[in-house]
Specification:
single chain, 7 helices, 68% helix, elongated
Length: 182
């Protein structure tokens, strides 16, 4: 294994890494993982185990070529995904900076409305179980909103501020440029 590039060859295979990570991660989950995080670890282990099934499907004539095609596609698309992430983080940062001053104003409006308050005075869930969301208030919600835009799930009204034409114009320009690029 150590001579003739064996370890390098082993390390270059995704299947070897799945074998090397799956069982130790499972043992860690069973023996040491905090109770509240067990589901996270088990979900990761389940994903690894199901993907390992693809390795065994490589041995059959009917599925081997398909598995090879899927793995090659994933390998080849990595640079596109990196470019997509960079574009998404760039536009997400722009939207966050553009709309960050509005997050506090939005929270103040929502918290003044008594129907949207919970018992502790925070923002309560609506009758349908959802909470009113401001998509540009935190970096997490911004990047999740960027993913939603990438999938076509957005409303143009979210980018329009009747009281500020400059913000609206910049936001619409950002949105159009992001849509064109991705």
């Amino acid at each position: 294994m150590w001579s003739g590039g064996g370890f390098v060859e082993w390390g270059s295979s995704i299947w070897s890494w799945m074998n090397a990570l799956g069982f130790p991660l499972y043992l860690h989950t069973i023996l040491q993982a905090p109770h509240e995080r067990v589901s996270y670890y088990l979900a990761l282990v389940a994903l690894i185990l199901w993907w390992k099934c693809l390795y065994y499907l490589k041995g059959f004539r009917a599925t081997g070529t398909l598995v090879q095609m899927v793995t090659q596609t994933v390998v080849e698309v990595r640079w596109f995904v990196l470019l997509l992430l960079i574009i998404g983080f760039g536009f997400g940062s722009g939207f966050y900076i553009l709309f960050r001053h509005k997050a506090a104003a939005w929270a103040a409006v929502v918290l003044k409305d008594e129907t949207l308050k919970d018992a502790a005075g925070g923002i309560a869930s609506g009758s349908d179980g959802t909470r009113p969301a401001y998509h540009w208030g935190t970096p997490t919600t911004v990047y999740l909103s960027m993913l939603a835009i990438l999938l076509g799930e957005f409303e143009v009204d979210e980018f329009v501020d009747p009281g500020d034409d400059v913000d609206t114009a910049m936001a619409i320009c950002f949105l159009v440029a992001y849509i064109i690029l991705v």
